[in-house]
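G., before I forget:
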Amino acid sequence: MASDANHAHNFGHRPRPVATDSTRPFWTAALANDLSLPRCAKCDVIYYPPPPRCPRCLGDRFDWISLSRRGRIAGMTTVHLATIPGVEPPFTMVEIELVEQKGLILTTLLTSEKSAQASVGDPVILEFTEPDPRGVAYPQARATAEVQP
Amino acid sequence: MATSRTSSNDAVAFIGVGSSAITRASDRGIHALALDAAIAAIADAGLERDDIDGYVGAPGATNAGAVHSDGGDEITARTLVESLGITKLAFSVDAHKGFATDMVILGAQALRSKSCKYVLGVRALYRLPDIAYATVAAENAYGIDQFRVPFGATAAGARFASRAQAYLHRSGATRRDLYNVVALARRHARLNPLAIWRDRDVSLDDYLAAPMVASPLGRFDCDMPVCGAAAFVMTTARNMPAITHAPAYLAGTAGWQRPLEIFDNANRTRADIDCWQIYDGFSLMIFEWLERLGWCEADAGWKFIKDGHAERDGRLPLNTFGGSLGEGRMHGIGHLREAILQASGRAGARQLPKASNCLVQVGTFDFSSLLVLSATP
């Protein structure tokens, strides 16, 4: 990637998620700081991102459930290029494995001041930003004080 | 592709290759570069353009800031075929976001089904001026992107960098091991006159001092965006033209969900593979595919490189043209070109003493295809 081609237009705010019926419950719950994800009514598997159908049984009946918002860092990177309009680099992108289900990964930004010191395996809690002027609350992760077992 | 052997007349052969110059910026547009490569490949195959009756492309520009403009940062079949003056096409397809290896698979299927006799394949890349190469310049995020773009997952290799950090964490490898991949690419690029890094070795100090892009990946862990094109011509043994050089044959193909089938599909064993062109858009990818195809245990790919097994005189010479990290971001067509040249004994100063069977893998951990190219069908 070219870091020297990193000027040019920038809309100044984060790309706005445009929901469909498959994803709208997530963004609606986000406004109440609630992490809500679809669980297949037949397979009991939780998915993120919310899929149109369960990839296992291909059914389209989901129960939207509230999660604890707790998880651990499964992967992370600190990005030094301005790749997200409205987000100043450097920022840290994390892949969070949520405690409710092995392999249930949510990709978001880590917001703690000491995010550069965070490490794979560290516990985090997900929160949602205050709604921006366009009415979107984005998930973000914060390192928690929980000591690793 | 079926595991049974096809009749010798149906053996698919690469009979021509061509490349444009590869540069970091170019005042000549992608259209001109694609024509350079196509014309060279047709001539190398000993054909006239009127012989070409099939075309495969994979035009997608894959950087986050791409504008997807035909003749801007992409070149479509429609535009290229018309400007080549080709008028007798029986088959043409653009594999949108496919890889060079997918172009080959499509072309081989068209040949075997007798849709056409001579397939031209062209892949061109272009770094446009006046755009933010790695920034998603979009007001809205639709579809799956609504969960990726606002979090930076689709740009600057972030999702690969995140995997790389997890890999280093669990394997004990460090950035010095990523450096070993970059240094290997630069060494091999010395022998490739097209490579943008052909005369630019990188020291460990230079590597560590280079700006970070997405930790743990620094500037030299990422292939450099370039302007360039490469092309190939395929046919079947039945329609082999009078060429003065040896062809390379397509021995077999596989997809990423069942990659180990590449050996059976090619009727070769792992021990038969003489060299490997592995996609290296980011340095870590080398480790992942070495492990996935069973040359190393899980999380041990970095030792394979460190111990010298991927050198020209090693057990499995790797990316003998310098890879994308040495040649520039040709998105896998460079890997294919090198395998064609090695398997047909035409790699010049880079020619390996033994290159009868070359494995090519292009793509990511979650979307990829593989080929074996051989000196014999």
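Chain B touches chain A through 51 residues (CB under 8 Å). Residues 78 and 117 of chain B are 19 Å apart (CA to CA).

More on Monday.
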